[in-house]
Amino acid sequence: MILKGLKDKFKHNSGLKYLRQEVAQPRLRPEGRSGIQAVGILADLDAFSDVEALFGLTEVLGIHPNAVKVLGYKSFYDKNSPYATPVFSDKDLGWKGAVENSYVLEFLGREYDLLINYFQGDNLLMQLVSLQARARIRAGLHGVDPAYNDLIFSCDISDFGLFTSELKKYLNVLKEIA
Fold this sequence. Notes:
Blueprint (H helix, E strand, L loop, with lengths): L1 H23 L14 E6 L6 H5 L1 H5 L6 E6 L13 E2 L13 H7 L2 E8 L5 H9 L1 E8 L9 E3 L6 H14 L5
Parallel strand pairs: 1-2, 1-4, 2-3, 4-5, 5-6
Helix pairs in contact: 1-5
C-alpha cells in the first residue's frame, strides 16, 4: 500500500515536470483551413454534470451532431458503471505525462478546429490532455493558465448558456462561423 502511494506521487511529479516542459515550448497548430467543422470538448464532470448541454453546441455553431467529441473527467469513477460520456480519472495517469486511457487516446487521435477546455483551476490530467490535443482554436474558462486557451471567458462553470453565447460572438468576430 505504501509503495502504491509512492508510485502515484512519483507519477504525479513526473506529469508535472512534463507539463512544465511542454508549456514552455511553442504550440504547433494545424493550418490550412478555416471554419469550425470539428469540435472537441474536455469537460470537468465533477463540476459540470449537464452533458446534454454540451451537445447543444451543434445548433449554436451550425455543425453536424457527430462533429462534437466530448471527453469527461471525474476524479473517481467506477469502470463497471455506465457513463453516457467517455470518462477518464486520476488513476489513468502514467509515467512522463502519459494518460493511459483508451478514450483519451481516441480523443487525442483526432484533429479539431475548436477545442473547448471546460474546466477551472489546476487539474494535472485535464491540462495534460488539453496540451496534447491538436486544435486550431482553444477556448476555455478563467482560472486556468492562459497557455492552454486562446479565448478565455470569465463566466461560472455552471452557466454554459452564457459561455456558448460569448463563444459564438467571438467566433463570428474571428470569421470562423457565419
